[in-house]
Design a protein that fits this description.
With 471 residues, the protein is of the alpha/beta class. 31% of the residues lie in helices and 22% in strands. The chain has an 8-stranded parallel sheet with strand order 8-11-12-13-14-15-16-17. A 7-stranded mixed sheet has the order 3-2-7-18-19-20-21. Helix 4 links the parallel strand 13 and strand 14. The longest helix is centred in the middle third of the chain and has 18 residues, at 214-231. The radius of gyration is 21 Å and the shape is globular. The protein binds N-(aminocarbonyl)-beta-alanine and zinc ion (ZN) (2 copies). One of its GO terms (molecular function) is dihydropyrimidinase activity.
Length: 471
């Protein structure tokens, strides 16, 4: 059924203006003043902003990790995402050395197909580069529309790839039109520091952070950026947590290397001291890279403001405290890394960023939606409010005040890392391709209604690529 969203203030990455939006057959069909149509359902957005649906470029839903599986799957995870104003997620599909890539992709389709309530896509992990992988990559891009490859530079003996694999992946990505993503930490050095800590009996959660220093992230980020320059390729650095990594990204961009940087809410809002919470509660705050000393937060905020960092991912990878995080009692290396964030990503950036004057309203839309859609080949279908785009819309109350709590969150884990943090602003209603998923803060969507998105090659959407590199 046709819908008209009336009286809202439309905010895109470029503009802020008052207009009505008409939606029909999943798409935005008209934007204008005083729209009317007797056959349309009228939705009053007075007093609210209307944003393009958020795009979360970094999720790990139902992902095996550290002997367990992340708690939120494509059903609970995407319902929570929708509550938080996100209407598209791009999840990381893990692969196994020596096994066909298609097997992993099929496994990820099986996990998501009947569960996701919003549209979704996959990145593909590359753990080795050989003739067999080279043969398989063209069909990954052409048939599956997966145009981003992830290489881990950390997690030694688990996910970590060597520099040859990274470099060859960059070369192939250049040839095929894909974007290479890196988890940039020096896994070898970290492994050595971890062994030394354990030998000394340093087993508490705080040692997770102390054995993964900012230098290890800065070094890996710089190495990946230099290799990108050498291959004349394109790089996206996930979950940037510290000044050391920001400096390397800025340096590379100044040289003209195509390097894009993402940060996450936890690095903007939380700090290393959380890992020292008593009764093993520090385990709730174990991420890799780890939370940093507070001084790094200003650097990250400033980098978002200046465009040195371009996007915000959630790195959603949730585990219960009881039964999952506590696998690491007595040995911090056994704490599964990650946390429940998908629901609070957009609100935290609005509240801590826009409301506190650190970034503009339009930058907020760019960082949580538009720039991500452009980077990953789904713009302008996703990431903006324009005629012809998918009607993925968030009606957002900018003034409501609330306190984040596990009691009111929709993620599956038994805690919320932002518990007790006060935020201003919340999505009221959310539409995915013209249908309500969230209406008046209640989930009204349909399980399995999300579509799988095949994405364009990197740079195929030329105009958006040019914009991408303007700081
Ligand atoms: N980041 C994290 O701690 N967990 C998720 C896996 C990853 O992104 O490295
Ligand atoms: Zn990572
Ligand atoms: Zn991640």
């Amino acid at each position: 059924m046709k819908k008209i969203i009336k009286n809202g203030i439309i905010v895109t990455a470029a503009d802020t203006y008052k207009a009505d939006i008409m939606v029909e057959n999943e798409k935005i069909v008209l934007i204008g003043q005083d729209l009317s149509d007797s056959s349309a359902e009228i939705i009053d957005a007075k007093g609210n902003y209307v944003f393009p649906g958020g795009v979360d470029p970094h999720t790990h839903l139902e992902m095996p990790f550290g002997g367990t599986v992340s708690k939120d799957d494509f059903e609970t995870g995407t319902i929570a995402a929708a509550h938080g104003g996100t209407t598209t997620v791009i999840d990381f599909c893990l692969t196994n050395k020596g096994k066909p890539l298609q097997d992993s992709i099929d496994q990820w389709h099986a996990k998501s197909r009947d569960k996701s309530v919003i549209d979704y896509s996959f990145h593909l992990m590359i753990s080795e580069m050989n003739d067999s992988v080279l043969e398989q990559l063209p069909s990954v891009i052409e048939d599956e529309g997966i145009t981003s490859f992830k290489v881990f530079m950390a997690y030694k003996n688990v996910f970590q790839a060597d520099d040859e694999t990274l470099f060859r992946t960059l070369e192939e990505a250049k040839r095929l039109g894909a974007l290479v993503m890196v988890h940039a930490e020096n896994g070898d050095v970290i492994d050595h520091l971890v062994k030394k800590a354990l030998e000394k009996g340093q087993t508490d959660p705080i040692y997770h952070a102390l054995t993964r220093p900012p230098e290890a992230e800065g070094e890996a980020t710089g190495r990946a950026a230099q290799l990108t320059g050498l291959a004349n390729s394109q790089l996206y650095v996930v979950h940037v947590s510290c000044e050391n990594a920001v400096e390397e990204i800025s340096k590379a961009r100044k040289k003209g290397y195509q390097v894009i940087g993402e940060t996450c809410p936890q690095y903007l809002v939380l700090d290393q001291s959380y890992l020292e919470k008593p009764n093993f509660e520090g385990a709730k705050y174990v991420w890799s890279p780890p939370l940093r000393e507070k001084k790094h937060q200003d650097v990250l905020w400033n980098a978002l403001k200046t465009g040195e960092l371009q996007t915000l991912g959630s790195d959603q990878c949730s585990f219960d405290f009881k039964g999952q995080k506590d696998l690491g009692k007595g040995d911090f290396t056994k704490i599964p890394n990650g946390g429940p964030i998908i629901e609070d990503r957009v609100s935290l950036l609005f509240s801590e960023g826009v409301k506190k004057g650190r970034i503009s309203l339009n930058q907020f839309v760019d960082i949580t939606s538009t720039r991500i859609a452009k980077t990953f080949g789904i713009f302008p279908q996703k990431g903006t409010i324009s005629v012809g785009a998918d009607a993925d819309l968030v009606i957002f109350d900018p003034n409501v005040e609330r306190t984040i709590s596990v009691e009111t969150s929709h993620m599956a884990a038994d805690y919320n890392p932002f518990e007790g943090i006060k935020v201003t602003g919340q999505p009221v209603s959310v539409l995915s391709r013209g249908e309500f998923v969230i209406r008046d803060k209640e989930f009204v969507g349909k399980i399995g209604s999300g579509n799988y998105l095949k994405r364009a090659r990197f740079g195929e959407l030329k105009q958006s690529q040019e914009e991408l590199y303007q700081n």
